[in-house]
């Protein structure tokens, strides 16, 4: 049984939780999460930092086997995501609130706050021995309709579950799972004590 483990090849020492986090697409479809595990993921998002502590997000968790999980799998995902994502244990549909006390929210700032909540939840999943995969390949209008979403932007869906072995996967999926992890060079991503060139 081959389950890929792909720690990041970093240029500085990082916490193992960060080095070992990556986004597989092969999950165990028989692995179900307990109510307590889902609550832990929700609490991780709830305690994320946000501007003025406004917490402008809502997470809709959809569990493997539920009617809504099936509907999002069929209508709410695009292209290749439809082929692999339904094997995960849980979808976390990430929503960003459009208004605050009757006034329109700044979309960039709201998305930033949601990103913090999303990443905090993903790191909690990693600490629980689970894996996750952010999906931007979604159909927001279908998700809005299915989940009765109002006054929120549908930003992404995160697949969460137990990573599974490569044996039963397609050649295309195996190629993606075993591909080398790459990043832009350090100087393209951060700098110290100098302006941008």
UniProtKB/TrEMBL annotation:
It holds the Pfam family Nitroreductase. One of its GO terms (molecular function) is oxidoreductase activity. Keywords: Oxidoreductase. The keyword Secreted does not apply. Gene3D superfamilies: NADH Oxidase (3.40.109.10). The keyword Oxidoreductase applies. Residues 18-77, 87-162 form the Nitroreductase domain. CDD domains: TdsD-like. PANTHER family: NAD(P)H NITROREDUCTASE YDGI-RELATED, NADH DEHYDROGENASE_NAD(P)H NITROREDUCTASE XCC3605-RELATED. Belongs to the nitroreductase family. This is Unannotated protein. It comes from freshwater metagenome.
């Amino acid at each position: 049984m081959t389950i890929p483990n792909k720690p990041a090849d970093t240029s500085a020492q990082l916490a193992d939780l960060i080095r070992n986090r990556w986004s597989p697409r092969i999950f165990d479809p028989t692995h179900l999460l307990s109510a307590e595990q889902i609550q832990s993921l929700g609490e991780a998002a709830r305690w994320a930092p946000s501007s003025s502590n406004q917490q402008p997000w809502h997470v809709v968790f959809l569990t493997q086997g539920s009617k809504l999980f099936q509907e999002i799998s069929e209508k709410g995902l695009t292209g290749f995501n439809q082929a692999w994502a339904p094997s995960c244990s849980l979808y976390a549909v990430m929503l960003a609130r459009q208004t605050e006390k009757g006034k329109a929210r700044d979309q960039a700032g709201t998305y930033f706050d949601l990103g913090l909540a999303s990443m905090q939840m993903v790191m909690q999943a990693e600490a629980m021995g689970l894996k996750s995969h952010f999906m931007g390949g979604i159909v927001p209008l279908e998700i809005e309709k299915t989940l009765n979403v109002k006054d929120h932007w549908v930003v992404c869906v995160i697949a969460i579950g137990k990573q599974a072995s490569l044996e039963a996967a397609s050649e295309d999926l195996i190629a993606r799972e075993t591909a080398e992890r790459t990043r832009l060079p350090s100087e393209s991503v951060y700098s110290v004590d100098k302006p941008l060139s």
